[in-house]
Amino acid sequence: MTRYTSIAALVFAGLLSACGKKEVQDITGPFANSRIRFFNFGVNAPGVNFYANDTKMTAIQSTTGTESTNGIVYGGVGAGGNYSAVAPGQYTVTGRIAAATDKDLPISTVSTTIEDGKYYSFYVSGFYNTSTKTVEGFVVEDPFTVPTDFTTATVRFVNAISNANPMTLYAKNTTTAAEVPIGAEVAYKGAGAFTTIPAGAYDLSTRYTGSPTNVLTRPAVSLVGGRVYTITARGDITVAPTTTCGATNRTCLDNTANR
Q1: Are 241 and 234 in contact (CB under 8 A)?
Q2: Is 86 exposed, middle or buried (0-12, 13-18, 19+ CB in 10 A)?
Q3: pTM value?
Q4: Which of 30, 53, 99, 237 is the most exposed place for a label (fewest CB within 10 A)?
Q5: Are residues 152 and 139 in the same domain?
Q6: Is 18 inside a domain boundary?
């Protein structure tokens, strides 16, 4: 046994010597610390896969061994709402058709700069044009700070409804009935400031400036302490709203946690 062990050791040493230092790969490089996530809120838009330049950033699980032709459908969020790592730089961000027909055709394209260490969200928005096979989109920065006080949550509002007036988001505590605005009025493709409020259950609503009437509502939303949330208005403002965000084209308030 000692003889064979010695021979094996000599052979292994010879292989290492033959490889040399130039053949050893360094895999300890730094990971990208910027982040981006993706929403398909384009009314009537087909399912898409999202790309940053030519790098595919989202995918749908497939059990067939081939890429899914579903993509992220309307109302969906890539990677379950989680962020994807991306290196800082200038990007053309696209949503590309996932279906076999017009496969990989970009329907929504936005040029943006990703800065080091910052977080972003890309929204496909507006109405899908079946003639030009295009839909609008926009990118917003997500400059949030995770609360260290676990009795509070952080919330902000994004307006992704192209045919709605600027709106303000309000949160009404279901226990105390105290109501507070979440930031200021937000126009289409805009994002409000992240606002800290006590953790708890809230009835959410949006209103136009100067009007006491709720435009959109979503009842009993739990905002957990130590978490960060983005509430996004989506859909077609001319279609009757829903409080569950389940029906295509209906306006609703999407709730997706940032952290």
Answers
A1: no
A2: buried
A3: 0.86
A4: 30
A5: no
A6: no
